[in-house]
Amino acid sequence: MAANLLFSFDDLTRKDKAVKELEKHFKRAGANPVSVDVDSRVKRSSGVSYREISLTFSDSQVVKLRVKRPGDIFQVMLNRKVMPMTHQDDHTKAIGEIVQAMDRGRTAFQKRLAKAKVKLPKRMKTAAPRMEKRLEEKRDALKEAVEDARQQLAELTAA
Questions:
Q1: Residue 35's beta-bridge partner residues?
Q2: Which residue has the higher pLDDT, 75 or 89?
Q3: From CA 116, how far away is CA 101, in angstroms rounded?
C-alpha cells in the first residue's frame, strides 16, 4: 500500500520496518533477496551523507541503495554501477525497474563472474608440483622397465 518507503537514517538496521517492507517489495517483483545488510557507518560522497542498504540475490547480483539523512533513497547501484531511475517518486515502480534491469543484465553478469579469476592465498600450496615430480619418476621407472624387457626379448630371440 505504501508507495514510498521512508527509512530512519539514525536507527537504520536490518530489522527496521522500512527495510522489511523493501524486502517484501522485491519479493513481490520476483526477485528474492538472499541477504540484506545495512552498513552501520555513515559515508559521504559529493557532499551528501548516506548509509547503504545492500541486497544480495541468489544469482550473486547486488543492489545497493544509498539512503540520505531525510530517509529517502538518493542513489541506486546495481552490481557496482550507478543506475538511473525514471520512477524516483514511486518506490514500487522503481523496484520493478531495478528487477527488470537485473533480468536484462543477468547473462552478461554471469559471464563476467565466470571469467573472474580467483587467486589462491599465498600460504595455500597445491600438491601439483610434488605430484608431477612423482609421476615423472614413475614414468622414468616404467621406461627403464620397458627397455629392460626389450633387451631380454632381443637376447632370447637372438639365442
A1: 56
A2: 75
A3: 22
Count Cα atoms within 13 angstroms, Cβ side, for 26. Answer: 26
Spell out the domain ranges in the chain.
17-115, 120-159
**DSSP designation for 6:** -
Whole-number Å distance between alpha carbons of 87 and 17: 22
Closest Cα to residue 9, out of 37, 42, 36?
A: 42
Q: Look at residues 111, 89, 45 and name the one whose alpha carbon lies nearest to residue 64.
A: 45
Q: Which residues contact 51 (CB under 8 A, 6 or more apart)?
A: 9, 12, 38, 39, 40, 41, 42, 43, 66, 67
Find the radius of gyration of the CA atoms of the chain.
30
pLDDT per position as a tens digit, 9-65: 777 777 778 788 888 888 888 888 888 888 888 888 888 888 888 999 888 889 998
- Are 113 and 62 within 8 A, CB to CB? no
Amino acid sitting at position 34: V
Which pLDDT value is given to residue 4? 64
Say if residues 59 and 52 touch (Cβ distance below 8 Å).
Answer: no
Q: Tell me the residue type at 114.
A: A
- Crossing angle of the two packed helices 106-115 and 91-104, in degrees rounded to 10: 50
